[in-house]
Amino acid sequence: CPAAIDAPGQQRCAVAEGVWIIPGLKIARDGEFNVMRGEETQLLGAMELAPAECYVLPGTHCKWVQVTDGMVRHFATAMTGELHHLLLRHSLVGAGLPEQVSAPDAFNAGLERGLHSPDILPQLFEVRASHVLGSLPRAHVGEFLSGLLIGAEVATLSQRFRDQQVTIVAGETLANRYQQALSAIGRQTTVVSGDNAFQTGIRSIIHAVAN
Questions:
Q1: SS3 of 192, please?
Q2: From the CB of residue 139, how many other CB atoms can be counted at a distance below 10 Å?
Q3: Is the pLDDT of residue 141 over 90?
Q4: What is the average pLDDT across 143-171?
Q5: Average of pLDDT values for 72-77?
Q6: Is the pLDDT of residue 211 over 90?
Q7: Taking phi first (over 0 means left), then psi (-120 to 50 degrees means alpha), and beta for anything else, what does residue 57 get?
Q8: Could you give the CA distance from residue 97 to residue 80 in angstroms, rounded to a whole number?
Q9: Omega into 2 within 30° of 0, i.e. cis?
Q10: What are the φ and ψ backbone dihedral angles of 178, each rounded to 5 degrees?
């Protein structure tokens, strides 16, 4: 990057008859390094379905992408989904917890905390302490942690990606959570299904190949 949003499809690599690998995108400059592998196809479809200059693609590794004049200028990655899984399943924060259940109030509380205090490293052990001391129901820890991490991500990266209009590319559950977080800081959002974005993007690439 910067690279044309349709550049990956144009630089496809043939590996067999009728079979191509679509390359991703990278940033490697001024000590900054990042890679995108797969989301570039969703991004191409999302731009056709809901044009914007800022895209947020939630997931295990959430991508924030800046697009202007058909060019991917910059993107950043937040390991929010993976961090949630690791903390809940493989750290003291989630040790010994029962099966987690949906708890909108706990998510909202975590989201508010993350949005207003995004320096979450000192707060992670507090999640553990809060359920040990009985302040947070043990079955709601996952929801509070989800809100905390998403809130911190949105509060931090929205300072780098300042566009008022944001297109979220995700499944319904994640899209709703990010839409809530972005709305809380005054951003207007449009949601595009991740599956629809991928299908639209891959059709665009195949159409280019056929022509």
A1: strand
A2: 16
A3: yes
A4: 96
A5: 96
A6: no
A7: beta
A8: 20
A9: yes
A10: -70, -35
What is the pTM (predicted TM-score) of this model?
0.94
Q: CB neighbours of 206 closer than 8 A, spacing ≥ 6?
A: none
Nearest CA among 137, 149, 77 for reference residue 111: 149
Q: Is 36 helix (H, G, I), strand (E, B) or coil?
A: strand
pLDDT tens across 175-202, in order? 999 999 999 999 999 999 999 999 999 9
Residue with tokens 């949105």: 154
| Chain position carrying tokens 């929801």 | 143
- Which tokens go with 156? 């931090």
Residue 4, pLDDT above cutoff 80 = yes
Instruction: For 145-179, give the secondary structure using H, E and C.
Output: HHHHHHHHHHHHHCCCCCCCEEEEEECHHHHHHHH
Rounded CA-CA distance 174/148 in Å is: 14
- Give the burial class of 20: count Cβ atoms within 10 A of its Cβ; 0-12 exposed, 13-18 middle, 19 or more buried: middle
Please determine, for residue 129, whether its predicted confidence score (pLDDT) is greater than 90: yes
The one-character DSSP state at 13 is E
- Residue 92 and residue 99: Cα distance in Å, rounded? 16
In three-state secondary structure terms, 49 is: helix
Instruction: Estimate to the nearest angstrom the gap between the alpha carbon of 94 and the chain centroid.
Output: 23
Report d(CA 97, CA 92) in Å as an integer: 10
Given a cut of 80, whether residue 126 has pLDDT beyond it is: yes
As a whole number, the mean pLDDT across the chain is 94
Nearest Cα neighbor of 117 from 106, 105, 109, 128 is 109
